[in-house]
What does this fold into?
Amino acid sequence: MAFLSNPIGKKMLMALTGVILFLFLVAHLLGNTTVLGGPGWINAYAEHIHSAMFAPLLWAARVVLLACLGLHIALGTLLFLENTKAAPTKGTFVTYKEAGLSSRTMFYTGLLILAYLIYHLLHFTLHSVHTSLSVSAFPPDAEGRPDLFRSIALSFQRPGIAGTYLLAMAIVCLHTFHGVFSSLQTLGLPGKASLPVLKRAGQVLATLLAAGFALVPVAVLTGWINL
Amino acid sequence: MRFHLKVWRQEGPEAPGRFFDYDVDDVIPEMSLLEMLDKLNEELIKKGTPPIVFESDCREGICGTCGMVVNGSAHGPQPKTTTCEIRMRHFQDGETITIEPFRAAAFPVQKDLLVERAGLDKVIQAGGYTSAYTGTHADANAILVPKDDQEYAMDAAACIGCGACVAACPNSSAMLFVAAKIAHLGTLPQGMPEEPKRALSMTEVMQEEGFGACSNHFECQAVCPKGIQVETIARLNRAFLKASLKRRA
Ligand code: HEM
Ligand code: SF4
Ligand code: FES
It folds into this structure.
């Protein structure tokens, strides 16, 4: 508890949960690339992770991720409130020199990610929005598997849905653009020489991740992926 | 040179403050910003207006008392320069210059540009002692310190405790200040034994005194007049982690 009442302790747990969430996103992105391989790939992948063999793993991952997300949000909100209290005003003419849009909007981009996350789960996991586009609305594919490919393609053919996902990826990019390096700094990784390198690497990684996610809706919109 | 100044004036800690406009003529380019304010104050006194209250002592960049926010930057726009070292030739003739106190919940404004920075002293007190022998001073080379460590400790020891890092930080965190002290003392044999205790107590008191936590914005590094690097904050984070694990064990 002494660890968590310390300002660095709070940040360290924040950083650790952030890194775990980011690693999940990397794994998620790797899974998503199967969409680019066509219905055979993504449907097989989806059937695989939902199979009895992987079910315990899937549930374990869900529990860990949910715990991380809960801690990350709780600590992020606490830090945001404490930091706002410590700095009610920074004066009338404030010029920022190193802090960018990304680092200054972490709390707000975090909240937007949460909103997106809820929408995304309602869409592809719980099938309670866009029901006419959910897998259960379509017959199984040629191999008798749930036709996730059709659900994804038809969803992103709607500019409104594709646009929402693209906007969300821009926000994820903004959050992790600062977040990836920030967590390494908080965990005490950088040395004198490696600090600028790690900072740039974090920004590149965040951009690549978001671009990777954006690829699927863009591929559908441009007709590269088609039914 | 002549300047138009917008200076924050505030009667006392509770009173509302606001900007006042002043014109200063016949400023010599070699004057420091504080000397320009001295000149203005003399004119104000002659007119029967109370002079602008601000702090200064050494006026050569070593004591750390003179901080103020000049044109939106703690210690002004000149990198690695304290307020007292800014020369008026760095500004454009006829320029409007805004001058405000350091802003942080932990630095309450006392009057005009004068803020209370005792919070930093409390953090230093929380750091405790170093295990050095007292009495007659030791031989200069009795304890050998590797050159790189000497340099590193010396760079960190350059911190003058001015609080500009707090003023610039969007969270009003004092992490760069604490990190400088931890890096300075923890790198040398005399201060090393107490490092774990120091890393825990100084950061705890930092929070108690109303300073925020570090979000790695790095605004501190940009304004620090002594060039303290944010790499020292990563070092402090490591020291804190080691100390926490040790406390567990
Ligand atoms: C999958 C989603 C998310 C990922 C990958 C992620 C990742 C990260 C990472 C890596 C950090 C850096 C930690 C550090 O600075 O040490 C961070 C910071 C932060 N995150 Fe998230 N995050 C996510 C969702 C959220 C959500 C939903 C919120 C909601 C409030 C949030 C709020 C914050 C805040 C406020 C910070 C900055 C804390 C500070 O520096 O004071 N994040 N995030
Ligand atoms: S770290 Fe730099 S800005 Fe902060 S108190 Fe020390 S000298 Fe001043
Ligand atoms: S008056 Fe001493 S540092 Fe400026």
